[in-house]
Amino acid sequence: QVQPEESGGGSVQAGGSLRLSCTVPGFTSNSCGMDWFRQAAGKQREWVSRIRTDDTTTYAYSVGGRFTISKDKAKDTVFLQMDSLKPEDTAMYSCQTIMCLIEYRGQGTQVTVSS
């Protein structure tokens, strides 16, 4: 049985890219949406991006034009492609289902961007 999981975090230099993944079994068949959040050390949790059941997407102003959220319906997976990373993007990133019978909130994956 596939378990929900997040992956893809790591350490990169400023200007680099990372792709985060969030797999939640049943995500597609239950017509779920997904939010990505992040929390930097000592700061409040911040909403980053959303993808809805109809594939429409929304981004926080701070990441618009640099981050892209997408999904692979066949794999019940949502991706967060992060390009042109900045040191201020350093945080623990987590995914969370929305508008869905499946309630999932990931443990998070660390992203560290060095200058």
Explain what this protein looks like in three dimensions.
With 115 residues, this protein is mostly beta strands. It contains no helices and ten strands. The termini are far apart.
Helix segment tally: 0
Mean pLDDT: 95
- Which regions are unreliable across 5 or more consecutive residues at pLDDT < 50? none
Overall radius of gyration: 13 Å
Main sheet specs: 6 strands, mixed
Beta-sheet strand percentage? over 45%
* DSSP strand tally: 10
Work out the helicity level: under 10%
Q: Supply the helix-strand structural class.
A: mainly beta
Assembly annotation: single chain
Give the strand order of the largest sheet, numbering strands 1, 2, ... along the chain.
2-10-9-4-5-6
Distance between the termini: 41 Å
Short characterization:
The chain contains no helices and ten strands. It has 115 residues and is mostly beta strands.
Task: Provide keyphrases for this structure.
globular; 6-stranded mixed sheet; 4-stranded antiparallel sheet; 115 residues; 0% helix; mainly beta
Chart the SSEs and their pairings:
Elements: E1 5-7, E2 10-13, E3 18-23, E4 33-39, E5 46-51, E6 57-59, E7 67-72, E8 77-82, E9 91-98, E10 109-114
Parallel strand pairs: 2-10
Antiparallel strand pairs: 1-3, 3-8, 4-5, 4-9, 5-6, 7-8, 9-10
